[in-house]
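Supplementary Text 2. Reproducibility record for the structural model of the 410-residue chain.

All settings were left at their defaults, and a single model was retained for analysis rather than an ensemble. We include the record here because the model underlies the residue-level annotations in Supplementary Table 4.
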Amino acid sequence: MPYVLLASGVLALLTTVNALWPRKGLLLLIPGFFTAWLTIELAPWVLVAEAAVTALIAWFGGLTGAAGLAGLLVTALGWAGLVVVMARARRTTVTVQRWSAELELDPGERAPSFPRSHVVLPFLMTRRSGVTRTRDIAYGDGPRMRLDVYRPAEPGERRPGIMQVHGGAWMIGSKREQGIPLLGHLAANGWVGVNVDYRLSPRVKFPDHLIDLKRAIRWYREHAEEHGADPEFLCVTGGSAGGHLAALLALTPNVPEYQPGFADVDTTVRAAVPFYGVYDLGALLDGGSKVFASAIERHVMGVRRADGSEAYDKASPAHWVNAGAPPFLVVHGSLDTLVPVEQARSFAARLRNVSAAPVLYAEMKGAQHAFDIFPSYRTARVIEGVERFLTWVRRAEHPATGRGPAAGSQ
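Retained model, structure tokens:
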């Protein structure tokens, strides 16, 4: 048993080291990402699980001899690293407070809190009190052109809308597993959320993904009132590839080539909150492996970059930055190994130099890609900050509009 404890301790230490300094090499990129992602956002649960395993091994004699003591020491080092990981997550509160300080809201007003029960028991995230969900509404002819609507259970005046776009490298992903904590919290505090699926590559090529989402905006304009939403007020959010598409939605309103057959529909959005998005596709391919670049060229874009650099420029939100852009809150993790944080820093700086609207940038210290998929402590604080930002946007346009009933807030 001492050698079992030693092996367990080495594994715990390696997992923690990867969470603090995630691996970026090609062979370890994907397993390193998943291991770091889960360890970072579930650090308290990882610590409890490792403590239980260590106690069990010790009970059966694992602490005997030099190997046992070495195992205990290595395990303790891993736990010390997990404490650092958790301390980094706690710094999210400071980051959120900083961006909230830039908003013109009553300083004495407390933003609605995310349910603590969902942070302790993440599987509860689909059961937000005071929120109803209508699934799989068709907004187009394709089998993937479906959306879910999240709205307050209690009837009320027309509410602001928010569209969530899932990620997955434009080739995988679904509304079933992304954006749920955010949409549930917003719906509990007076918003109507629309979680959208769209056609995926390699069946379709860009810009079909973007066109589908603009069709979803057309659906929203036509059907928002049926779900208690304001058809004239819609914001957009999304993560990774969804962050890329959300940014494009915000920066390309009413561009005819992206609205074939419905160019007369107003596809303007009032604000954008992209999470860990891709903003410069060319720079992403330059910094990635040849295998990744080839997959994007063949499966997503349908044209080699060497043969169609203009297509890659037009597929990049950075190309579309303009003075008329809506307010942006750009969120990214400092330890993102899939989409480098430099993408967000550069995009936010460029937006600030050009856009007449406010641009807020929030860099989550110690966060990996996709950190908000489930409701960790960090996710809860970020979601509260996003609600505060969107409330500010809403009030800037409608000064008399209050926050509204916070149905189900805990």
